[in-house]
């Protein structure tokens, strides 16, 4: 049963990912990415990470992708004709690295050391969200604060970059 | 049950699709979308290893990846808007002011 669900999610994820990079219009790319986000969230549920799945849908599909669609529709660019001139080389490099990585993964026996476990993890004793919160707010409290600082810097940077003439002589509010 | 190597393989494929997308596309917005693909591949790996190692730290790190991804999106889109205002293009080969 799990294998069937995994196969479905994996197939849709790969197809949607190819759709993101293959479709001509940026809007179609963004919508394919939306499909992929939802199926990645389904994969997270399969892996007993319910809270991360919810956050994936809320933050990625709800906030980040809406921002993308907003900018795509704001700029209203024409559909592009053809790919980059280095497209063939790019494809060759991509498939080369992919083949190499698959070969390395096939030769290495690391997956055998992690047998498929159905035993309840230490997290599920208190529930996924509570276990995650305990670790996040105790062990990783300092990285959590640094993450908030990153968000603050990104916010200020976006305002500085996108607002016209904020430092120049036309910086006075009109 | 699904073995761990399936998840690693899926994440590998998604990551490579992202790399190819960065290499072959000309539209900067699609380049940013490809970067999102790569970050999501990393997230799949984190959560899969967190499940198989019975350790919740992997899911905590998905949080930080999410934070960095949103910061990257915000700054990237602001750069795109500033670029479009200045040059009226979002194709990568039209933007070479800082190349050499």
Explained architecture:
The complex is a heterodimer of chains A (174) and B (100). Chain A has helices spanning 2-22, 26-46, 50-75, 87-107, 128-138, 141-162. By secondary structure, chain A is mainly α. Chain A is globular and about 60 Å long. The termini of chain A are far apart. In chain A, 19% of the residues are buried. The mean pLDDT of chain A is 83. In chain B, 77% of the residues lie in helices and 0% in strands. Chain B has 3 helices and no strands. Chain B has 100 residues and is mostly helical. Chain B has helices at residues 4-24, 28-52, 57-87.
> Can you tell me the CATH class of the domain at 2-122 in chain A?
Mainly Alpha
What would the average pLDDT of chain B be, to the nearest integer? Answer: 88
For the termini of chain A, the CA-CA separation is 62 Å
Terminal residue distance of chain B: 53 Å
Work out the number of β strands of chain A.
Answer: 0
Structural class of chain A: mainly alpha
Q: Output the helix-strand order of chain A.
A: HHHHHH
Quaternary organisation of the protein chains:
heterodimer
Helix content of chain B: over 70%
Beta-strand residue fraction of chain B: under 5%
As a whole number of angstroms, the C-alpha radius of gyration of chain B is 17 Å
Shape of chain B: elongated
CATH homologous superfamily grouping of the domain at 2-122 in chain A: NADH-ubiquinone/plastoquinone oxidoreductase chain 6, subunit NuoJ
Shape of chain A: globular
